[in-house]
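Before a colleague's protein record goes any further, I have to sign it off. My question to you is simply how this chain folds and whether the tokens agree. I do not need a full report, just your reasoning and any doubts. This is what I was given:
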Amino acid sequence: MNTPVTNRGIWKVIAASSVGTLIEWYDFYIFGSLATVIADQFFPKGNPTAALLSTLATFAAGFIVRPFGALVFGRLGDLIGRKYTFLLTLVLMGGSTFAIGLVPGYETIGFAAPLLVLLLRLVQGLALGGEYGGAATYVAEHSPANRRGFYTSWIQTTATLGLFLSLGVILLTRHSLDSDLQTSIQKFNSWGWRIPFWVSIVLVGVSIYIRLKMQESPLFAKLKSEGKTSSNPLKESFGNRANLKMVLLALFGATMGQGVVWYTGQFYAQSFIENVCKIDFDQSRTILIWAILAATPLFIVFGGWSDKIGRKWIMLIGMLLAISSYHYIFKQFQVISDPATKTEIVEQRKLLSQERVGNSVVLTSEVHYTDGAIFKEVKTVMEKDTGAEATVVYKDKKLGSGGYWTAVWWLFVLVAYVTMVYGPIAAFLVELFPTKIRYTSMSLPYHIGNGVFGGLTPFIATLLTTIYVNDHLSGLWYPIIIGGLCFVIGAVYVSNKIDPNVND
């Protein structure tokens, strides 16, 4: 049996592991949260959709290299220990994030700008690949057997809280650069977006100080003192047929579906609200903040519940609910932001600008609706009657109170699905593998499933909507197919049995 620390000690372990992991997620997510701003800074202007896709591809590149980080740092963690591997990944992550905030824009150094950002993004991905497996392993190896799901679920909250922290810092910076809001936003889009990246170096400094005070995992320390650590973790993890089977089962029966549910609920949903529904920058982020704040405690609820009824069915039911309701929920985001469903207050319509572009005139108006919503309408009409119909598009949509909280509710439901698939998964993965190769063995399937299958979700979903332009929900087929496949494999082959002894 493993030898858990005291109740007070376990909370110190969780706090030290969680703070560092939270900051690493913060570093990782500010890039995704600022995708539209970064697209404007680091890619050629003139085609915003191509620039956004390039930014999302750079964002996804960080996920693609995570499995390599899992192999490199997982091996180190199984050879030299969890504690010092933690520190190394933290320094790499913090340093590369800070450096992204220093890279000159495309207008200054041309294509060197996106190349430098891509390089730093790859370093971020490698570092993160070594972080999560170590944190989950470290906490699990300190936990009592009957509370392993509950204690490791605290680690699961850090990814969501890291996203929450990144959104908060971004909004705070965006609103505080000038007393006039519009001027402040202009400054933020010009250079202020760099500040959240620079803040990272302070947070990482604090985290390094905390982690230096951590002790080595008791199970790993015991193995090391007995000379039983693995001499070749990669060979033992993937060269052993029985262990390789567990790695593949963890990937295709759990983490692959967990990854797409996670990134659809928290990333693609925000991208959809902002870029498809055209809800304004601040509202699209505060909607996500409220939803995350309300749903985050559910990580702990489902993690603790998994100690009583097993991990498997909580994760799989969350997966099934998600893929069967995605179309309906994303359709609700379209409905609440559709001007055709609203009644305009005609007397409050305000013409903001009138501009001649070639043979046409572009009229920009502010349109008020009876439900409190305010949309910006851009109408293009031909100066001469050529028979061509006027085109009308809406942007910077500010929802009324009812629409706003309806959006928060549906996003809360999406994040709740995330907590079901994500809350128990650290305990599930830890229990699959022996101590001497646990860091390596659990890190790889987690980062392929979560990082590659999940991390590609925003890019592939956005790409699908540019191919099938008349179907804004077409992007959802990617997470639905991957999640459905994972559900079937998990339901048939994954065991619901909890392993009480991870000291093997």
Remarks:
- The two ends are 8 Å apart (CA to CA).
